[in-house]
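hey so i finally got around to running the thing on that chain from the lab meeting. sorry it took forever, my laptop kept dying and i had to restart like 3 times. anyway pasting the input first so we r on the same page abt which one it is
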Amino acid sequence: MTYRLITLVLLMLWTLPAAAFNAAFFYGTPFIPELRIYDAIIVEPDQPDFVSVPASLQGKLYAYTSLGEVGADKPYAKSTPNNAKMTRNTAWSSDVMDQTSPVWQQFYIDKIVAPLWQRGYRGIFIDTLDSYQLAATTPAARTAQEAGMIATIRQLKVRFPGIRIILNRGFEILPQVHNDITAVVAESLFQGWDNANHRYTSVSDSDRSWLSAQLNKIKTEYKLPVIVIDYAAPNQRTAARNAAQKIRSAGFIPWVSNPELDMLGVGSPEIQPRRVLMLYDGRENKDPIYSDMHRYGAMPIQHLGYVTEYHDLSLPLPTQQLAGQYAGIVLWSGTAENSVPLLKPWLLKQIKSGIRLAVINEFGFERSRNNLQAFGLTLKDSVAGDKVSIVKQDAIVGFEHKPEQHPNTIDIIQSSADSTPILALKVGNQTTDVAAYTPWGGYVLSPYAILEIPYQQGTRWIINPFAFFKHALDLPDMPAPDVTTSTGRRLLMAHMDGDGFANNAEFPGSPLAPRVMLDKIFKKYTIPTAVSVIEAETAPWGLYPKKSAEMEQIAREIYRLPHVEIASHSYSHPFKWQALKEGENEDGEGLSLSLPGYKFSLDKEINGSVGYINQRLAPAGKVCTVFLWTGDCNPGADALAKTDAAGLLNMNGGETTMTNSQPSVTFVSPLGVARDASYQIYAPNQNENVYTNNWLGPYYGYRRVIETFQLTDKPRRLKPVDIYFHTYAASKPASLKALEDVYDYALKQPNHPVYPSDYIRRVLDFNQIVMAREDGDWLFYGDGQIDTLRIKANWGYPSNADSVAGYQDYNQDRYLNLTKSTVNRVQLTPQPSKAPYLVDANGVLKNWVQHSKQTDFTLNAYVKLDFTLNHADTCRLYDAQGQVMRTDNHTQQQYHYQTHAAGQHTYKLSC
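ok and heres what got predicted. didnt touch it at all, straight out
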């Protein structure tokens, strides 16, 4: 989970649209990065997440401080001056401090606030401002206490210029300090928490009336934002949502959470969780990429718009409050016999907190009556399955293969009356529910999720994973950020791994393969392309010193091409990244190219190879920006961190090879994999080495990638198009012809050419996008890379042109073209708008401003721009020079326009 926090630190925070001030409270750990959409985030500074506050968060984070009391759990509790303690607050087991004491005032400023300021906090939240009333009982005594607090706050403003202060209540001192603070907080307007009796309470009408009067006075007289914290149990999300709406209706800023304030509560807007916790059993192999969870389960979850976070069941289970920040939990366990300690009570705790659970294969603990009964399932005696028949089958069953009726001993499991069987089998005179939707989620027991087909025929889903996960986890109809599509068209890119630069091609004169690649591919097909080299192949100190000068010259010519971006394919081409040991000589081990005397060095592989390219091969003004993994494409966290530190984008890996002979989404990989603080981005599909049986032939085999392109586009678009190959693809006539065929096919499709680096950034953006809801609308917060949201076509039409420029319908989906780079509000209506809209384009939308009778917009394309608009026959499109643009084709009200140049184009549509 470290990945989320460090990614947050590296990203620029977004500017919210003009709206009311909003706030969130979170005292837990780890920090929830989605909270960054709020203007003020009040946190517990004693938590370990921010030893120093990143500059990007300094304008948002407010550190919790207590001016009126000191709890025993505070790190400074033992050094608190005893002579400044007035009494005890038994309800919270804390000391009430004397605000008139100069010693306490100075201690609070020097020992509590000053260290926070040094750590980077520029805002503080001051709590317990009415605690003095427990000891000061006379008017004079209370006035003195209030004067002490006023003096302390004013000293803070002098000592720490620019400090922002939010007060919890403090009604008595607001007349004197309202100009010194940013906002005021009050608790329990509708729902409260009784700490003495540990129960949630409803606020009485009289108490609410009094508090509302105080808060409205603050709004009207002092013009300060007022934040109200109400309380609700984690599993009462609907109640929390209703309370937040009541607070908003009363004119205040809501935050509804649990008493500990350690969960993602409900604010305005309300963050919709996009993360799914993926529990896999790492006792056989700790690397998640080898788990069925990663191989089969992750991609459908990501396609639904959610981010997968893996947790190895061999490690301690998460202890933080998961409610609110996770959309659900997926448990994929191999066997019932190999039980995971403490898993059952942990799962029941999460279910009780309101988190849905989807189980694939096994529950991770023994199938006993008591264990299953806790989940509402009844286990009966096993029955010998010599005669098995299907008695109930949901529509999601038979997705890629019908269920096999296994004639062996079968456990008889019956789901509860409030469950819905997905697949029920009759065994003898008994019925067993091998898959069902339940009140807590759903399950599919082995072997009724994935079928292993013998004779190397691969795997097939028996159930529809997209439908099962959506239903079992009760995922809302939320727009999905999409990395496959931009401005209505499927992304197209190309990238070349540098293997084979020294190969002589089987053409007259035996030219080097890269020379053939340059002349026959790169000069002919000018779409955005990343090209890499292996330093130990091309450099004069490498394996081929006699060929080096020619290879380097060819590389320089390739890198000078305007449509080529520069990538590295390492120094020694490691074949097994995690098997290589720093500083060890791997010569002869077959773990990398055989380089006599070379001792493996991550720095040389990554920084060294990039430095070689930049110094010897890259033209002026152009540098290497991408690192393409080699060999098994399975780098460890240390290697990924090295690319991040070098400012490099990384890609390669994955196993997307879906073809007509393997027509299963089990052959479609997820977007990548997180390792500690880094993320490895997989290539969207695989290269010609895979399609030619590891370069054993047939050498025309790469043509079959066209099947992959087609099958990952229909009936649902799962991947962009990536023409991915090695240098040696140009060494044989058959492989070169196959590559040309693939290019020719791809360029005939409606596509949107982008660089691989663009795609990589989109995937990284996908992982940290925040979706939220407010007033029935969807809010989208990104960092400017993803510009497309995907919805089902029957969900409705976008109605707000300031955030959505238009849409394209494809398959059963509707792809929304977003107008802004960071924050968008999406409104859906049953009927389409009659206003003009952008259908699709092969360039990025840079600007879209719609007036009553005119729309101004800008598109930027890497290739000759063409686009489609939907508008009335009477509309006219003008270019930047005021010339009327002529359509080359139109159907009904959809008009297609073409230009003769790449680059940025500005237009005015007048209607």
